[in-house]
Amino acid sequence: MDGITDAPMRALVGEWGCFSYCVTEFVRVSSEALPAKVFRREVPELASGGQTATGLPVQVQILGGDPERMAISALAAVRAGATSIDINFGCPSPTVNGNDGGASLLKSPCRIRDVVRAVRGALPPEVSVSAKLRLGWESIDDIFENAPMAVEGGASWLTLHARTRTQRYDPPVFWSQLARVRELVGVPIIANGDIFSLDDFHRCRDVTGCGHFMLGRGALATPGLAWQVARDLGLPFVNQPEATWEELLKRLIYWCEQFHPGTERRTLARLKQWLNIAYRHGDFGLFQRVKRAESLAEVLSQLDKEVVNKKL
Predict the structure, then answer these.
(1) Which residues are catalytic?
(2) Nearest to 257, CA basis, from 87, 72, 2, 11
(3) Which CATH number fits domain 20-214: 3.10.340.11, 3.20.20.70, 3.20.20.140, 3.90.1150.10?
(4) Greatest extent of the chain over all pairs of C-alpha atoms, in Å
(5) Does residue 303 surpass a pLDDT of 90?
(6) Which residues, listed in sequence order, are joined to residue 160 by a DSSP beta bridge?
């Protein structure tokens, strides 16, 4: 999730103890292939075996449309320490799409295959390659061409967001398409899109038949959702009580200071961004109470008030 799942957030998610792995923000490959130093800067976990400080495996995601540059960049990421590469064919941003990246490649199934094939061919066999796709640019049926092409190129699994690019994040989601893709390709399908509650998860699982799920905005809007899903799946995870928003935000401030010391404005913007997601996708009003805060001290003061009010 661009602008969201940076290193501090990934460290925090690792503390939750209920995810199998997390994916980085996309690293864009545009006019030139990227050197290893770019990946070391963008993904500091590569210096620690590709795991967060809290032990969560991190998959590096790259985005671009040129097969050769993508392959060279993926190899640079592996040389920097990446153990798994994901290719983003799903980003709906007009800026990204206008620069031959993300969902723009959904219009050209052969290009999806060529990018995946080039990346797969450049990497050692022990490094997995996956692809993130939407159902299509405009048609939800494009996925029946695009998914097989990604697999033909060598993707070990596919993460499918059950919308088209033109929908961006508008309803509805078409989970039933994922069930049909599962029958079409011989690799695992990770279901993604509009899982905001345990009931949503149950419906997604029942409709898609998938055994793997990716939480994005839902995990941020309702952090406890990840624990609920993990329990429901019977997955092994750190058995800890669901943290409160106040605890989570204070931990995010801590991790921001670890990775970006002395950048209070950046940290403040990150907190507001996260709370805005929660505000837009759930009944949660803390964003309204801190959105005009001009310092972390103001935010922390408000968080302490929240704790006191809950005890009254």
Answers:
(1) 91
(2) 11
(3) 3.20.20.70
(4) 61
(5) no
(6) 133, 191
